[in-house]
Amino acid sequence: MDLKSSHVSPVLTDPVPVNKSRLGIHSSLLAYSQQDSPVSPGKYSRSNSRKSTGSVDDVRSNGWLDAMKASSPPRKKLLKGSSFQIASIDFEIEDYCTWMLEYPSALDSFEKIVDLAQNKKIAMFLDYDGTLSPIVDDPDCAFMSESMRTTVRSVATYFPTAIISGRSRDKVFDLVKLTELYYAGSHGMDIIGPVSETLSKNHPNCVKSTDHEGKEITLFQPAREFLPMVDEVFRTLVEITKDIEGVKVENHKFCVSVHYRNVEENNWTIVGQRVHDVLQNYPRLCSTHGRKVLEVRPVIDWNKGKAVEFLLESLGFNDSDGVLPIYIGDDKTDEDAFKVLRESNRGYGILVSSVRKESNACYSLRDPNEVMKFLQLLVNWKRQERKHGKM
Hints:
The chain is built from 13 helices and 13 strands. The chain is globular and about 65 Å long. By secondary structure, the protein is an alpha/beta fold. Strand 2 (161-164), helix 7 (169-176) and strand 3 (182-185) form a beta-alpha-beta unit. Among the domains are: 90-191 and 302-389, HAD superfamily/HAD-like (Rossmann fold), CATH 3.40.50; 226-298, Trehalose-6-phosphate phosphatase related protein, domain 2 (Alpha-Beta Plaits, 2-Layer Sandwich), CATH 3.30.70. The two termini are 15 Å apart. The strands form 2 sheets. It has a 9-stranded mixed β-sheet with strand order 5-6-4-3-2-1-11-12-13, sandwiched between helices. Keywords: Hydrolase, Stress response. One of its GO terms (biological process) is trehalose biosynthetic process. Residues 34-58 are annotated as: Disordered. Its cofactor is a divalent metal cation.
């Protein structure tokens, strides 16, 4: 299979979603889904929300607040003349260096990584936010640099490459703007991959389609039936959080992100409680925690790890010893992919972090700049191989 020639553009028109009547949408929120009808705040007003959040025991007792704080370490500021801050920073550096003994730098370990890639094909999987672009206060401004874009394009020239993001597939493509890649949005619930005759037999949610350039692709959306439900929840969360300064709610098609990065910490409990209250009406949806974000998603057995397995299968690498998958990511949702690679003992997870974190990854990189250096090393290594007649 010609891996390079199968790269496709992710822009296409999706099939029409199923009727929402099958989804068991809660009657108190049904008005939000009526076609061509404006959102009716009376169906779930902020006053009703406050009434239901008179106690924050739900969020505290079920661990949400602790998880929100754990996934959102505060930014530390160095105060001049403060020996406490200096001592604290020195301790953190020492702690991080100790942590790196367990998760060594992928840059320092590069020769070891490529030694194991000899006579194998590398398949590259990349998260977007915090991996290819820096984490910023406004998610809409998380742009990758032109040098990073050039680097990722070069990587895709030599290796099949996919971006697996929590963002919608269309949104992440708008940010990356590279047609040479495969894209998986909504934490892998919306995938464009190469055409494979066996995929439709193994995965009933696979359909053959074409992109805007007329190339054949495989579209896989295992949570398609949840589309109307996710849209309902998105509209509701926008309405009931608009009085909380700093909240940003995003619709990623198959999941909803509630960002609280710009919310005062003493209001995090309110954010968590309102998300919790909405989910009481949707037993088929759940919430997970990311870096200063709550993610609402369908309750299905699917995640970024499953997306990696699907893409490897679509590339013809399923159960193959001739491939070395490498996944680079920075967030909790990437742990599912790290875990798949670790447990199958067939590839490497690389965690992007400048602070100590427990992880299923094998190696670490500090930030997107180090990610770019690692990718450039891979490209240069492959160029040298080809120059000397090696495949």
